[in-house]
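Weekly structure sync - notes
Attendees: PM, LS, DV (DV joined late)
Agenda: review two folding runs queued last week.

Item 1: First target. Sequence and structure tokens pasted below for the record.
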Amino acid sequence: MTDAPSTLSRRSLLASGVTGCALLAGCAGAGSSDCSFGFELAMTPATDEEFLEETLTDPSRDRPDAWREIVSAAVERDESRYTTVHAAPVRDGDRVEYEGGYYRIARGTADRVEVEAHVLSAEYDRERDPPSGATVVPFEDLPEPDRVALRSLLPNDERRLAEAEAFTISGRPVVYPDASESESVLLSGGSTWVRYDDGAVEVRVEGTERVERVTYRYTAEELADDREAYLAHVREAFVVDLGEVPESEREVFSRAIDAGEDGIQLCEPEGAERAVVDRLESIPESETPHYHTWFLDYEGEVYRTELVEFAV
């Protein structure tokens, strides 16, 4: 699946809280009283890759192994279960590709219970070595419950120390299996250095807390058995026909189309611009693959349409 740089930059904009005006040609400067809030509207002809990108969920970035295990079991064995005290890596309604087929994942709750968790923190700095007298243990020498706990503590990217400069993970609850705490090396002291991948991570025990442990039940519904069938499915499900559009709003859509990936700014929108925003935001969630992202059929052409709100 290919990336769409313009999509990523706009989403990064939302996530970081940076004003959209700073990125847009013709917008009053960031912080200008002429453009204190508004929207960026971008419309580009939709491609097959964008239909896939916008409607499919990629493997979880921090727990790809758990993601694959959940999906494979749901597809191949009709059901999978996953127990965690953190957010689950697969959400209800996620659409996924697996072994050439396309599926919608349904998630329900099979069990929910309050348990005691140990709160662990981890710190790594490539330039920092364990101090003299510190407890240093190779990862492969840890008991299995500690290895599982460390994998849970460190997101996937942070496990590859050879590629990391430094990171800190603070106060993450980890639940040990029953009767395994007595085997633990990590829980036996306040600080333990774990050496692996040519580096050393300091793991600290911060205490305990009560947390909710949830067991999720997953099932998979087949949507299509190949790529072309899936593309036909999502076009049917997500392409929205705008129908009759007043001339004043057509002018706004035309400007957005002419601007291509750069998009246009609707600064403090009123009149036709406000009507366009309201029209887009009124599209049902069931026809919205991502927040403020749609596939619009406008004058016989399907456009990938994104509306990004900004404020100074």
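Item 2: Second target, run right after the first with the same settings.
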Amino acid sequence: MLVDVLEQLKTDEQQFEWYQDKYNDYDDRNLENQFNKLIEFNQIYTSLDFDTVLDIKKLPIPDQVKQYYQLIKKYGDLSLEDHDIQELECLINELPVLEVLKELDNITITHPNTNLNILKNHAETLLRYLNDGNRLEGIGFSAGKLFLPKEIKEKLYFVEGVKVNDSDCDTIEEFEQVIKDVKLKKNFDKLKRIYNADFENEYEKKLLLYQEIILLYKLKSDKYLVDVHAKIDFTRQGRYQNYQNTCDKIEQKNQFKEIRQQLSEKIPSTIEKILSGSVTTFTDLQDAFYFKHAQNYVQRLPKRERNK
């Protein structure tokens, strides 16, 4: 029986002489998919110069281009420096989270046109007074105003001059809200010195604005994004879809290149035969594997066994 196998191998040797690679794992389940994808891509992109294929990872996705375009349109060419952005980020990190800002936006606080540092100092003094068990409202308070300590009496303008949701500021909770509000105003004043966002009144919107400013600055440092943006005619309809189509083609070329590289590591001598059309089906390759596997098995047998 071994003689029959040897004779068949001798007969088949010429048929499979085209296969010069050592790889013969016919159980490689991923190989068939890679082979078929290589054939498919090779039919789409004939004679592709793999050295000229752009790295898809370096190209911005369409959503990034759209976002960059919208931010540029909204804020123009920023004249901020690295240290400005770093300072913006540091100040933003000191702010409460967005949810807290939303809650504060739902509270209306009005106060006299007074220096914020003075306002904060007066609010903290009166808050300590309340926390000590005293009151700033009621009949007892009204009757005893003349006997109040000077540091409290001179700050009583605060009670009626500052309003929390149209109510006099005379409770611990209201003073705490006012102090939070003053601190926020001071923080946003620092942000304003770097980039003026006064056209936004709500804290939430101001924060989102500054976050967009930082994002735009960082996007501008991506030269691939800037180059792509410069080449797109934003007056044309379907501009983003056209760019998406371009990205899809480049993605396919990257997949083609990657599969070619993966197969080159397994069957380097056979790759060009596949790309030239000499090997057209996975069955051709699989049959060559079976032949090579049988040939290697027989060659490992002792000589006396082969001569039986």
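Discussion on item 2: The radius of gyration is 38 Å.
Action: LS to circulate a short write-up before next sync.
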